[in-house]
Design goal:
Elements lengths: L3 E2 L10 H13 L9 H21 L6 E4 L2 H16 L3 E4 L5 H14 L2 E4 L10 H9 L5 E4 L13 H10 L3 E5 L18 E5 L10 E5 L25 H16 L1 H22 L4 E2 L13 E5 L4 H4 L2 H7 L2 E2 L15 H6 L2 H4 L3 E5 L6 H16 L1
Parallel strand pairs: 1-11, 3-4, 3-5, 5-6, 6-7
Antiparallel strand pairs: 2-8, 7-8, 9-10, 10-12
Helix pairs in contact: 1-7, 2-7, 3-4, 5-6, 8-13
C-alpha cells in the first residue's frame, strides 16, 4: 500500500460534498456578511443558517453558537473571558488537557494570579471525581472547571453528566474541550447542562481554520478579539464564510450518518485491538484506549515492546512505508519532551518504550490495518 492515513485525531480528510459546498460559496457568495447589499445579505443568510443547523443538532439556541478559527481560539476565548468578564478566581483542570487549555490556564495563573488546581488522576488517566468535589468545596471563590470530554491522546471519556452535576451543585462554571468528540457523539446541551463547549471542523471531515464555541445564553461572556460587532459581539472580524458553510455541511453529514459511521469505525478499532493482541505479544494499550466501552471509538494508543534506541526510528520507518500516525497529539509530535499526557500516567520504564496513536475514520479499511500491523511486526522483529 502506498498511503495509509491513521492520524484522524490530528485532522481528517474533507468530505467531497463539503469541498463542493465551499467551492460554490467561494465562487458565488463572496459578499461580506456584514454588508447591507444583496451580496452581503446572501452571505449573512448562509452564516445564520449554519448557526441554526448546529444549534438544532445540539438542542441549543442559535445565539449560543459562536464561530471561531478553531478549537484553540474557542478554548482561549472561554477561559480568558471567564476570568475577565465573569469574575472567575479559581480554575480546576487536569494535567492531561490539550495545551490550548493547559498553556492558557498556566498563563492566567502566572500573570493574573488566578488560582490553579489540578484534579488527581488514576493510573489510566481518569480524573478522580471525589477529588474534583473536594476542590469545588475548598472555598467560596468563583470557580471554572475545565475538563475535556475525550482525551486526544488516550481516548478516555469522562462522564460529563456527573461533572456537570457536581459543578451545578457547587455553583461552578463548566467548560469542556469537546474537539475530539463533537461530530462523533450525539449532543444535547439541555440534558447535559454545560456552560461552554468547543469544537473544530477539521476533526469531523470539515475544513481547517474554523470551529465554534458553545456559550450558554446570558452567561455574561464578553469578547476576546475587539473590533466589529460580528458573532453577537463575542468575536470581532469578518466571518470566514466559505469555512463556515463547509463546517455546516460537515456537521450535518456527521450527524445524519452518525450511527452508520460510528458502527463502521468501532468495528475497525475492535479489529485493530484484536490483531495487535494476537500478533504483537507484549504490546499494551495506554489509558483506556484498548477498552471499547471506556474510550472513544476513533483512536488507540499502543505501547510497543521495543528498546528506546530502536524506537527512535519507528515513526520514520512507518512514514517510509506510507503509514501516517502520531507519537502523541499533532500539536507536539515535533517536540523533544515527549507526551505530557503519557508522562502523567506511565512509569519511567514504560516511557522508554514507543507509544503510537493510531486514529481511524470512515475512509479506513481492515486491509489498511492488516498492512500496518504487518509493518509493525517486521520492524519489531528486525
Amino acid at each position: 500500500m502506498e498511503n495509509v492515513y491513521l492520524d484522524n485525531a490530528a485532522t481528517t480528510r474533507v468530505r467531497d460534498n463539503v469541498i463542493a459546498k465551499m467551492q460554490d460559496a467561494l465562487s458565488n457568495f463572496y459578499g461580506n456578511p456584514s454588508s447591507t447589499h444583496s451580496f452581503g445579505r446572501s452571505a449573512k443568510t448562509a452564516v445564520e443558517s449554519a448557526r441554526k443547523t448546529i444549534a438544532k443538532y445540539m438542542n441549543a439556541h442559535p445565539s449560543e453558537i459562536i464561530f471561531t478559527s478553531g478549537g484553540t481560539e474557542a478554548d482561549n476565548m472561554i477561559l480568558r473571558c471567564a476570568v475577565h468578564d465573569l469574575g472567575v478566581k479559581s480554575i480546576i483542570t487536569t494535567k492531561i488537557e490539550h495545551h490550548a487549555v493547559l498553556h492558557t490556564v498556566e498563563e492566567l495563573h502566572e500573570k493574573l494570579g488566578i488560582a490553579l488546581h489540578f484534579v488527581d488522576l488514576d493510573e489510566y488517566g481518569n480524573p478522580y471525581l471525589s477529588h474534583l468535589e473536594s476542590l469545588l468545596k475548598a472555598d467560596d471563590s468563583k470557580k471554572l472547571v475545565s475538563l475535556m470530554h475525550v482525551n486526544n491522546e488516550l481516548g478516555n471519556k469522562i462522564d460529563l453528566d456527573l461533572v456537570s452535576s457536581l459543578c451545578i451543585q457547587h455553583g461552578a462554571l463548566f467548560h469542556s474541550d469537546t474537539v475530539q468528540s463533537i461530530g462523533h457523539f450525539s449532543w444535547d446541551v439541555q440534558e447535559t447542562p454545560v456552560d461552554f463547549l468547543t469544537a473544530a471542523a477539521h476533526k469531523f471531515h470539515g475544513p481547517k481554520g474554523v470551529g465554534f464555541a458553545y456559550i450558554k445564553k446570558n452567561s455574561g461572556m464578553g469578547c476576546m478579539i475587539s473590533g466589529g460587532s460580528q458573532e453577537r459581539g463575542h468575536r470581532a472580524g469578518t466571518e470566514s464564510f466559505h469555512n463556515i458553510v463547509g463546517l455546516e455541511e460537515a456537521f450535518t453529514a456527521a450527524y445524519d450518518n452518525l450511527e452508520e459511521e460510528k458502527s463502521y469505525v468501532t468495528e475497525l478499532k475492535r479489529y485493530f485491538i484484536e490483531k495487535v493482541k494476537q500478533q504483537i505479544p507484549g504490546a499494551k494499550f495506554n489509558g483506556h484506549s484498548g477498552d471499547l466501552e471506556k474510550s472513544t471509538y476513533t483512536l488507540v494508543n499502543v505501547r510497543l515492546p521495543m528498546e528506546a534506541q530502536k524506537a527512535l526510528m519507528l515513526l520514520f520507518h512507518l512514514d517510509i512505508k506510507g503509514i501516517a500516525c502520531s507519537k502523541g497529539s499533532a500539536c507536539q509530535s515535533g517536540g523533544s519532551t515527549g507526551s505530557h499526557v503519557l508522562n502523567e500516567i506511565l512509569n519511567a520504564e514504560d516511557l522508554q518504550k514507543p507509544s503510537i496513536r493510531f486514529s481511524f475514520s470512515k475512509y479506513n479499511t481492515k486491509e489498511e490495518l492488516d498492512y500496518t500491523i504487518g509493518i509493525l511486526k517486521e520492524f519489531i522483529a528486525q
